[in-house]
Amino acid sequence: MLRHRLLTRDTAITDPGLYARLSFSEMDPEGRVDARSLEQRQDWYVLHGYVAQRADLNAALDPSFATYASGVLATYP
User: Residue 46 and residue 40: Cα distance in Å, rounded?
Assistant: First the structure.
């Protein structure tokens, strides 16, 4: 995969096979957090006993900064 070859060239991780096993977080170019993705990860942690209960992600996430930035800056195409 091209991304893996580029990463092995430009980072300290030189084994392209390692990248195939890593989990990459997708980044929204507008800076928004994908709440659904966080909910799914949180469910996994609860299911496997890493955390005892779910956190209220609605209380933790504040999209106002990304919303403001999108209004001031040009949006990503």
Answer: 10
The torsion angles phi and psi of 40, rounded to 5 degrees, stand at -65, -40
Report how far residue 1's alpha carbon sits from residue 35's, in angstroms, rounded to the nearest whole number: 28
Radius of gyration, alpha carbons of the chain: 17
Q: Convert the pLDDT of each residue in 29-50 to its tens digit.
A: 888 888 888 899 999 999 999 9
| Domain boundaries of the chain, sorted by first residue | 1-27, 31-77
Alpha-helix residue ranges (DSSP H) falling in the chain:
2-10, 16-21, 35-47, 57-60, 64-72
Question: Where is pLDDT greater, at 25 or 51?
Answer: 51
